[in-house]
Design goal:
- The protein is mainly β and about 280 residues long.
- The chain has 1 helix and 24 strands.
- Strand 14 and strand 15 (about 180-185) form a beta hairpin.
- The longest helix has 15 residues, at about 10-25.
């Protein structure tokens, strides 16, 4: 099936295929190409998720697409088939969570889309990341901080009013029973049991205040991708920072995405020069 679009590769697309390949083989992954069509208007892939049947879901600037290994099919989230820009995806407990550039949040159960509606969820800022946090869903946004959803309601909402470094949040991860949130003002550590927060910034050792992406690196460390200073490691037990490999003389621009593959390689993509590499 040809959708009549021109596919524009992105970091999310390439890194996700690396993750899928590496998860299956547990070796250095291969790059794989999927045909999105050969002509027509441009389409940018912003996010990707994989379900328990190995189907791939692509969040694009023209809506949500599902690839079953044979063909690509669009999924309608509302009355219009391909009108929403999908910026974040998560497969969690047999449901695909879908975030949009305009702040709407949907779930897809395989047959029908349902919009998440809660008076505590403003839903007007771009959704930048979706992550599973135990039985909950973490929702990072560009301007409304981070929501933590439980069942069909907002359980917690982290903003600058209750300890978040900045309401402009890029990414979030769970590590050592703590929630780590990357923002424009550093990285915020949240003790979800106590609802206590602690901010790491350039004032206490973080090399760069703009944290674009976070990846668990080992049992005791997380890798932090930054805007100007490359990648650093934070020891979450000793609370100390160190540079990752070559980063003391970083010249590749913002680190947009990272992932750790099954063979232990840390893959990363930079925006300025479009590099994707690992070590």
């Amino acid at each position: 099936m040809s959708l009549g679009v021109k596919f524009i590769p992105s970091a999310v697309f390439l890194l996700a295929l690396i993750a899928v390949s590496s998860f299956i083989s547990a070796q250095t992954p291969d790059f794989t190409s999927i045909d999105f069509g050969k002509s027509g208007e441009s389409m940018k892939v912003e996010s990707i998720a994989q379900d328990n049947q190995n189907h791939l879901y692509f969040g694009t600037s023209k809506g949500l697409l599902k690839y079953d290994g044979l063909e690509m099919k669009p999924i309608a989230l509302n009355d219009s088939l391909m009108d929403l820009s999908i910026t974040a995806l998560l497969y969690h407990e047999n449901v695909v969570w879908i975030g949009t550039s305009t702040g709407q949040l949907y779930t897809w159960d395989g047959e029908k889309a349902h919009e998440f509606l809660d008076s505590a969820f403003t839903g007007s800022a771009k959704i930048s990341a979706l992550k599973g946090i135990g039985d909950c869903i973490g929702v990072a946004t560009y301007g409304e901080g981070v929501y933590v959803l439980m069942d069909d309601h907002v359980d917690r909402h982290y903003t600058t009013e209750n300890g978040l470094g900045d309401n402009y949040s890029y990414d979030l991860e769970m590590h050592n029973n703590r929630l780590w949130i990357g923002t424009d003002a550093g990285i915020t550590e949240v003790d979800t049991a106590e609802d206590a927060t602690f901010l790491y910034s350039m004032r206490n050792g973080l090399p760069d205040n703009i944290v674009k992406t976070i990846v668990p690196y080992s049992d005791s460390t997380i890798a932090i991708g930054m805007y100007d200073m490359g990648i650093c490691l934070l020891n979450t037990k000793r609370y100390t920072f160190s540079y990752f490999s070559e980063n003391q003389q970083w010249s590749h621009g913002p680190v947009e995405k990272m992932l750790k593959s099954a063979d232990g390689m840390l893959w990363r993509w930079t925006k300025s020069d479009g590099r994707i590499w690992a070590d």
